[in-house]
Amino acid sequence: MRISMQKIAVCVSGGGTNLQAIIDAVHSGKIHNTQIAVVISNKADAYALERANNAGIPALCISPKEYENRSAFGEAMVALHKYNIDLVVLAGYLVIVPSEMIAAYPNKIINIHPSLIPAHCGMGYYGLKVHESVLACGNKITGATVHFVDEKADHGPIILQKAVEVKNGDTPEILQRRVMEQAEWNILPEAIDLIGAGKVSVQNGIAVVSR
Ligand code: GRF
Predict the structure, then answer these.
(1) pTM over 0.70
(2) Is the CB of 189 under 6 A from ligand 1?
(3) Average pLDDT over residues 115-131
């Protein structure tokens, strides 16, 4: 059981509804003993940064475009060390995590993906594109996945998943909203809380959650 406060960094690129769910869960006590130490976006105009400012959380823009190459960007991101981060949370973060960061935080980076991995994931599957693919396949259920991040996109050990019904007449926008409301905004805070409580381990490449 962790004694010290779990300090997390949240990486964002867009509206930040998953970040807001984390902020709200920390305030409500759904996530125990955790502090959001910093929010980082690759987009200076990401509304998620405004959400962080409104919550009094340090918010930075670290854009790959500002660095001459990927390794320089990777070193900039590893500067997270100064915040003594225990866990990095990718919440709607659309940048491929540099290998320097993965090396610096082995099984300490998690991501929320809006489908039931391994379906509808990997390069090019993000945002509405995921839900367009689900509808094009005629799936009757979809959902969201929280997983550890490794070198490949949407590929690391699965921590939590939650299924969501696909309904007749769904558009990608309607389905995205349902997956956010019924799955993403629940399992991402839950995964952070479980990790903070030392209840998640990885054994032979499989994440094991002990509630
Ligand atoms: C959502 O589709 C989420 O599933 C994905 O990024 C999109 C935006 O998330 N991870 P947010 O509102 O910026 O958290």
Answers:
(1) yes
(2) no
(3) 96
